[in-house]
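sry for the spam today, last one i promise. struct tokens for design, 138 residues
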């Protein structure tokens, strides 16, 4: 499903979400993370050796909560690992620009292989969450 204009506007106003995944034993694991909304989903940057990364590989159904005080938007969807280049680099660069400002302002490498090398050094990749159901209350 595609996000509505109202849902996208809500998500665009915020930077942090709570991502819920399932541990191996089925218990929930939640973390507060930066997210970005790109054309085909919600993106979250993770280390490939993180628990979240492994949780999603085993069980891709996730929930994302974004709240503004008592108002909240919950996205239930399927997470997909984005670890192949050039998509990983392109998505991560767009993600960092949305969540932290323009790359040059952060001192991030912008040209050639430098950005990819920085991601490789940190073992970083992306999750793409495709919304399947969205609940919103104001």
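last one done:
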């Amino acid at each position: 499903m595609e996000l509505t204009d109202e849902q996208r506007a809500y998500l665009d106003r915020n930077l942090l979400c709570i991502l819920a995944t399932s541990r191996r034993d089925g218990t929930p694991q939640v973390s507060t993370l930066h997210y970005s909304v790109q054309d085909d989903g919600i993106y979250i940057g993770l280390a490939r050796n993180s628990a979240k990364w492994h949780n999603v590989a085993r069980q891709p159904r996730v929930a994302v909560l974004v709240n503004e005080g008592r108002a909240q938007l919950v996205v239930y969807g399927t997470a997909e690992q984005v670890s192949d280049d050039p998509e990983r680099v392109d998505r991560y660069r767009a993600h960092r620009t949305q969540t932290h400002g323009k790359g040059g302002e952060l001192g991030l490498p912008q040209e050639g292989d430098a950005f990819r090398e920085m991601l490789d050094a940190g073992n970083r990749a992306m999750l793409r969450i495709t919304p399947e159901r969205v609940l919103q209350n104001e």
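Helices lie at 5-12, 51-58, 87-100, 103-106, 114-121. ok im logging off now
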